[in-house]
């Protein structure tokens, strides 16, 4: 009974320590900023927001706390220990790697690099001495690298479950440029979770002895139960960023979760092997690096070889997304479906959709081809003030004003080009006043803003802001010499 009360006291002290640290709150603020920026990008692309960023933030906070409780319990049972110096090495290495490439801001890369450095240090023995470098080398040599690698595996396993359950809730439609320069529709999936952890740390007489033999000390031949232990708080952030143009977002999230789960299992096996046989540490560290790169490469390869899904064809207009709370959402329209007929008229362009909708301004009947290519009918009354396209976000055509262009960069490049806007004129041909009024009703902006905004790069993994890289929003316009039709800035 006394031992249980002592452990409860230590857990309470660890929780208070976590609440007193600013790092978790900083992580939540950064995540909130990323979601808020995503909403800003949606408004620039579609003139409407598709996600409410405070709701996304609350959802990720709750999920992150739940994951933190589970992972803390698992780490205590297996005996994963991490000192304050080890945490500083981990975060510091990740920050330095981010200066080279933003997606390297990931604990998989940091753990792999630290494992290789620790192994190389066994040949030069820099810890022998009293200088500053010798002290740093000694702290590096003291890191329990199998425990760090196992922690990385656990974080990726938790990320796989979160991506599977919540991945599609963070999906955002995008316009991208295809292989032949034609604009196509795509989806970007990104989510971040702040995960507070309580990890074992050796301490003095104020701690408690373990009543069991944890897995890692058992494999390494140590006797962890003979020492005195306490808890230290370590806030972590896991996240993922994926993009797809050849799959539905839910299918992409399912595939990404499966890949992350396999990666987690492979790194866990490598970490346990390194704990059992220390000579396998460089193999485990290199595996953590290369397997993570393999995840990203295989995902990019599948997308490059896949056929673009969100493009218009002879069957009709491809639905890229649906604005929540609009008539399209109430009628059950989904991304990947095709608008074949509107009010009995076949539609192939936005202009034809506009004309078909105005054949009956009080009612609309849609003939839709679902994701399996089967025909279905939906209908609804229309009211004044509703979205001019029923709330449907269509795949882009040649008149689209914005598209996202991936270009990976460093953290310095992200800060340098974090945000900039320009203004260009989009001119329409010399047509009748009715044609120009129709263009205005279709919300085709004449004075369009060219937005240069940093967006995450494709890939999967856990990070402090995982693989937050550089995508820039560029403008694609077709201008003809005539009097420009202007629209007031919203």
UniProtKB/TrEMBL annotation:
Which Pfam families does the UniProt record give? Answer: PDZ_6
* Sequence ranges assigned to domain PDZ in this UniProt record: 293-372
Ranges where the record places region Disordered: 453-490
Q: Which residues cross the membrane?
A: 23-40, 52-74, 80-100, 107-126, 138-163, 184-203
InterPro entries of this UniProt entry?
PDZ, PDZ_6, PDZ_sf
Q: Fetch the PROSITE patterns from UniProt.
A: PDZ
Q: Which UniProt keywords apply?
A: Membrane, Transmembrane, Transmembrane helix
What SUPFAM superfamilies does the database record attribute to this sequence? PDZ domain-like
Q: Which domain of life is it from?
A: Bacteria
- This chain's protein is named PDZ domain-containing protein
Species of origin: Paenibacillus cellulosilyticus
Native organism taxonomy: Bacteria, Bacillati, Bacillota, Bacilli, Bacillales
């Amino acid at each position: 009974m006394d031992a249980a009360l002592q452990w409860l006291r230590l857990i309470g002290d660890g929780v208070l320590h976590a609440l007193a640290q600013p790092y978790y709150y900083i992580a939540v603020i950064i995540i909130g900023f990323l979601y808020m920026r995503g909403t800003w990008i949606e408004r620039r692309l579609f003139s409407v927001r598709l996600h409410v960023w405070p709701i996304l933030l609350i959802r990720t906070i709750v999920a992150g706390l739940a994951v933190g409780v589970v992972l803390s319990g698992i780490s205590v049972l297996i005996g994963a220990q991490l000192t304050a110096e080890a945490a500083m090495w981990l975060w510091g290495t990740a920050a330095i790697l981010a200066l080279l490439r933003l997606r390297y801001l990931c604990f998989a890369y940091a753990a792999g690099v630290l494992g290789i450095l620790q192994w190389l240090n066994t040949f030069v023995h820099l810890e022998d001495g009293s200088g500053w470098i010798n002290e740093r080398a000694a702290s590096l040599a003291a890191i329990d690298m199998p425990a760090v690698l196992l922690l990385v595996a656990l974080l990726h396993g938790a990320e796989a479950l979160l991506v599977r359950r919540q991945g599609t809730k963070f999906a955002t439609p995008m316009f991208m440029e295809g292989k032949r320069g034609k604009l196509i529709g795509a989806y970007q999936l990104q989510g971040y979770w702040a995960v507070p952890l309580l990890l074992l740390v050796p301490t003095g007489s104020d701690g408690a002895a373990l009543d069991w033999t944890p897995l890692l000390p058992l494999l390494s031949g140590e006797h962890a139960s003979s020492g005195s232990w306490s808890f230290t708080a370590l806030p972590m952030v896991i996240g993922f960023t994926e993009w797809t143009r050849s799959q539905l977002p839910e299918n992409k999230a399912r595939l990404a979760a499966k890949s992350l789960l396999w990666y987690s299992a492979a790194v866990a096996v490598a970490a346990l092997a390194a704990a059992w046989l220390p000579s396998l540490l460089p193999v485990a560290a290199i595996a953590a690096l290369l397997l993570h790169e393999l995840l990203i490469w295989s995902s990019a390869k599948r997308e490059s070889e896949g056929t673009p899904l969100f493009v218009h064809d002879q069957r009709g207009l491809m639905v890229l997304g649906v604005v929540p709370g609009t008539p399209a959402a109430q009628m059950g329209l989904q991304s990947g479906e095709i608008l074949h007929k509107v009010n009995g008229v076949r539609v192939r362009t936005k202009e034809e959709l506009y004309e078909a909708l105005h054949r009956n301004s009080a009612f609309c009947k849609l003939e839709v081809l679902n994701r399996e290519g089967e025909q279905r009918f939906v209908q609804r009354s229309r009211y004044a003030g509703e979205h001019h396209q029923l709330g449907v976000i269509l795949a882009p055509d040649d008149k689209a004003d914005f598209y996202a262009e991936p270009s990976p960069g460093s953290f310095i490049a992200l800060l340098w080009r974090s945000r900039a806007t320009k203004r260009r004129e989009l001119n329409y041909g010399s047509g009748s006043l009715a044609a120009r009024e129709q263009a205005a009703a279709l919300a085709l902006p004449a004075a369009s803003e060219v937005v240069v905004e940093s967006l995450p790069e494709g890939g999967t993994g856990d990070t402090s802001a995982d693989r937050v890289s550089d995508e820039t929003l560029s403008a694609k316009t077709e201008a003809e010499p005539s009097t420009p039709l202007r629209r007031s800035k919203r």
